[in-house]
Amino acid sequence: MSYAVIKTGGKQYRVQQGDVLRVELLDAEEGANVSFDQVLLVGSGDSVNVGAPTVAGATVSATVRRHGRADKVRIIKFRRRKHHKKQMGHRQHFTEVEITGINA
Q: 33 vs 9, 19, 73, 75, 101, CA distance in Å?
């Protein structure tokens, strides 16, 4: 089974064909095909091809399943005995993609 390490949204993911993962929000419609061209590593069995910094000509194709927002993260800053308390919340947007192929 071949695998690859891709970079998108400032993060790196190890993916295989059939994987479903959440990445930073992509500008694509649901059901559309997207291609990740920043492939840092491609592996198949014992052979590993490491890019410098990316593998030339390698792409990973995926299908957009849905867009959404993650659970709320609560940020609380509290100073005891100082009459200071600050609360904030944040919900990050994401795109859920299914990996359909690895082209090395």
A: 17, 15, 30, 36, 11
pTM, 2 dp: 0.85
Cβ atoms < 10 Å from Cβ of 69: 11
pLDDT tens digits for range 72-96: 999 999 999 999 999 999 999 999 9
Return the closest-CA partner of residue 18 out of 77, 102, 92.
102
Rounded to an integer, the average pLDDT of 10-36 is 96
